[in-house]
Design goal:
Helix content: 25-40%
Radius of gyration: 27 Å
Shape: elongated
Largest sheet: 9 strands, mixed
Number of helices: 17
Number of strands: 17
Length: 491
């Protein structure tokens, strides 16, 4: 017989995870749509040259792409999508004239990476992306943070913090230190500060520079001129893809330069007052001036949009993926669960589709890492234990025809209350045990006496309390009241 196990790095999802996962997805879709984002879908399989930027991919990117070869096909032509943003770049370039800009899209779907499996790290997982393309104004930046706030809040996620920064501030710092040419190495080191700590990051900053693995390319990115990868802005997990041991790579800073970089990053965390301190230190740097002004405008718009100050903080050390970003960046963590990393990240990029069109298409977006978020909620024991999507079980009482039970479930469904009819007229205790184990909240019971009188009994499966002899005419209202919902609202 064939072993039923799944391949390494993949997983089955049973009802206890799949049900809350579907609820999260429904919430995110409602939130995205409420802001005017429209859904699009792109194929799971793309041409290899689309995903690799015509062969200019780095080792980290290329080694994680799943190649697809159909029978009789040519190797190297097709691959599974690595994220949802590169397909967006192709989609926008192809359809921009009919879509027009600004264009607001969301996409939810599986992506695939051939990375080493580990806890919370899968070869197939779901991303929930949303982007606004074709606009350079701060409103779209602020709205990105507002969507993150509203989506996580609507999903009942515990207290979380949206960290913000702007590439211009770190660029200004590096310019002031004469380190503009080492920006990529410095930012990659800073990106590890929260996980590795000051001493290890300082060691990397002062380690001698290493040459790139590919001529003209940094060790962890596609060629910097390859604008396709600039829009990895909404790739929530990209910064974690290179956790495997690699040869030492440094930025070649001296001790004083490393100290100033780290002091700037570590002291720049807090509210709007952080920007005043940054302005005092970097105010003469043009990129810093631009970044500070932009962040202030974004914060004002976030406040106007209902994002409270308690939900965000400035983090001048936030350097996540800054090789790809050109402006504001976001990173969201759940308070007390920072070890899980970011559950939603994003930022602004200058050119979404530079590989596919000469038309400049700036944008901003973010991605919610659904599977990472689900793993966090599971470990926090906030997912519940239900195995059912219907709160009501209609028992099939022995001796009562099922034609009497089916209409009752149908009536409940018509007013938005999920109801399941037990399929066999077995012993009532067995049916009620099934309902309790599955997570049904109520059981509707109609025995021969109740059927003759046009009545039903309503049992609370958690408390085992039972109300008897209710008129069948009151079925919908009685069940809705017991569930604590108005009629017509899905339970």
């Amino acid at each position: 017989m064939i072993d039923p196990r799944v391949a390494a790095g993949l997983r089955d999802l049973g009802p206890m995870l799949a049900i809350p996962r579907e609820a999260l997805l429904a919430t995110f879709r409602r939130t995205f749509a409420g802001f005017g984002f429209v859904p699009i879908e792109t194929p799971h399989i793309e041409r290899m040259e689309v995903l690799t930027g015509k062969g200019a991919g780095s080792d980290e990117v290329l080694r994680q792409i799943f190649e697809v070869t159909n029978t009789g096909g040519t190797r190297g032509e097709l691959a599974l999508r690595f994220d949802l943003t590169v397909p967006l770049a192709r989609f926008i370039a192809k359809h921009v004239d009919e879509l027009r800009v600004p264009f607001k899209r969301y996409a939810i779907g599986s992506v695939f990476r051939g990375e080493r499996p580990a806890k919370g790290r899968f070869r197939e997982f779901v991303q929930c992306d949303f982007d606004t393309v074709g606009t350079v104004g701060p409103l779209a930046d602020a709205e990105t943070a507002q969507v993150i706030h509203d989506a996580l809040g609507a999903a009942g996620i515990p207290k979380y913090t949206i960290a913000l920064n702007h590439r211009g501030l770190l660029d200004g710092l590096l310019d002031s230190l004469g380190l503009a040419d080492r920006g990529g190495a410095v930012l990659r080191a800073l990106d590890k500060l929260a996980k590795a700590g000051r001493d290890k990051v300082r060691a990397e900053l002062t380690h001698p520079c290493e040459g790139p693995r590919h001529p003209g390319a940094s060790p962890t990115t596609i060629l910097p001129s390859d604008q396709l990868w600039s829009q990895l802005a909404d790739l929530a997990d990209f910064a974690d893809l290179t956790d495997e041991p690699q040869e030492p790579r440094g930025a070649g800073l001296d001790d004083d330069q490393a100290r100033r970089v780290l002091d700037f990053a570590e002291s720049g965390r807090g509210g709007a007052e952080v920007l005043a301190r940054a302005e005092a230190e970097l105010g003469s740097q043009p990129r810093a001036v631009e970044g500070i002004a932009r962040l202030r405008a974004v914060l004002d718009l976030m406040t106007a949009g209902g994002v409270p100050e308690s939900a965000w903080r400035i983090n001048l050390g936030l350097a996540r993926g800054l090789d790809y970003y050109t402006g504001v960046v976001f990173e969201t963590t759940v308070d007390g669960w920072e070890r899980f990393g970011s559950i939603c990240s994003g930022g602004r990029y200058d050119d979404l589709a530079g590989l596919f069109t000469n038309r400049r298409l700036p944008g901003v977006g973010a991605s919610i890492g659904l599977d990472r978020l689900l793993a966090l909620l599971d470990e926090a024991k906030q997912l519940g234990t239900s195995h059912t999507t219907a709160p009501v079980l209609v028992a099939q009482f022995p001796g009562v025809e099922p034609t009497a039970m089916v209409p009752l479930a149908t009536r409940l469904r018509k007013v938005g209350i999920g109801a399941e009819v037990y399929p066999e007229p077995v012993r009532l205790g067995e049916q009620l045990g099934y309902g309790s184990a599955r997570g049904h909240r109520l059981a509707v019971i109609v025995g021969p006496d109740e059927h003759a009188r046009g009545a039903f009994n309503l049992r609370d499966l958690a408390t085992r309390s039972e109300t008897k002899g209710l008129p069948l005419a009151d079925l919908e209202s009685a069940v809705a009241k017991s569930l604590g919902i108005p009629i017509g609202v899905t339970a």
